[in-house]
């Protein structure tokens, strides 16, 4: 087991956390690509094109000195740090190997052959795929023509269903980028019958700038036991490869879920990086700014080309294309851009992740070039 005091002091000695981050030392635009890289540009998996926080990288490196120790204490420290930030008790927070690890554990803990999982379509597919493992029935309900989640429709479906129900809501949704309105969702959670449980996926929570938005964590704080909220370090924190996610629930809920995975199954460098990243407020602000600049460059070009796009509260945009999606993807790949991971968006639409502003400028030049060739 890691001697936490030793480890924290090791972190401190290389100026990684706490005061060093707060004063912004070493936070010049280090590691931020200034040029468009020569390899393919990844605009297909909603990652952070800036990479990880420089402080997080240093923390991960420092953690290698403790690689021979089990990470339990550091995992608990990260949970406590997140719990403190949210004003929750430590047992309301669990840490997992990405939020995927927690979504899967929740499904193992709470679903079986008599469970119905109700979700909007399209949405992130991991929970649907997990139904095939636990034997639950997956019932998708299409979003409306403005790509909004039909909460009333979902509630009607749920009311008609006997046996346990899990309502899976991604907000803002992937691949549409659209927020599920806070009040109607919260009111449903508050009045829902005892057989209905809500799995709220806030993977893109960090990007939201709509002032009307509220995280479902507030319901956990109010003591509701019918909700679990999953979040991730994979997106704004740029740590998709490090595999750290976290979740919030009443202690009864987190207790049930943590019985279905090994909460210490995380690499020490990843936990150290997550702790340092949380403190790196400059990096977080830079990531948000870069994302909104990149998004503005993209949407301006889409508007100029007359290609419809859905207003997005995330780091990706669902936009119109003309012609066949696979052909579009293949041509983009030939031009050096990986776009449009298939997500049941149907023909005529593509999801593109936001790269750096420079990458988005290059992408937009390619879009215009495609228009010149009559490809979009
Ligand atoms: C809505 C949603 N939930 C969860 C995940 C998985 O994230 P993680 O890397 O934390 O497993 C993703 C990844 O793209 C996502 O879009």
TrEMBL record:
Keywords, alphabetical = Aminotransferase, Pyridoxal phosphate, Transferase
An example of a GO molecular function for this protein is: transaminase activity
Pfam families linked? Aminotran_1_2
Highest taxon listed in the record's lineage: Bacteria
Aminotransferase class I/classII large domain spans which residues? 41-367
Endpoints of the signal sequence: none
What family does the database annotate? Belongs to the class-II pyridoxal-phosphate-dependent aminotransferase family. Histidinol-phosphate aminotransferase subfamily.
Q: Which PANTHER family match?
A: HISTIDINOL-PHOSPHATE AMINOTRANSFERASE, HISTIDINOL-PHOSPHATE AMINOTRANSFERASE 2
According to UniProt, the name of this protein is Histidinol-phosphate aminotransferase
Organism equals Kordiimonas sediminis
The UniProt gene name for this protein comes to: hisC
